[in-house]
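Quick one, tokens below:
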């Protein structure tokens, strides 16, 4: 099981689940391959990049993508409790 403590590590999992390579994923998301490569290796992404990924990968909770864990009791697409 890979270490998923970094955003880039979790993004690698998403890319694999999309059944595409990094270049194809960067095209799908609308970011440059160089930008995606930097995120996968060491750089934290800009908010706009996270937003683009969330539009393509609709079956994952953004909390998991950003922080590595899901909020208990909140499913994707549901508003957080007040």
């Amino acid at each position: 099981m890979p270490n998923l403590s970094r955003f880039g590590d979790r993004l690698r999992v998403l890319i694999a689940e999309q059944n595409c390579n990094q270049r194809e994923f960067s095209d799908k998301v609308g970011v440059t391959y160089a930008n995606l490569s930097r995120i996968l290796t060491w750089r934290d992404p800009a908010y706009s990049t996270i937003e683009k990924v969330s539009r393509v990968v609709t079956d994952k909770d953004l909390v998991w993508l950003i922080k590595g864990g899901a909020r208990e009791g909140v499913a994707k697409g549901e508003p957080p409790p007040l």
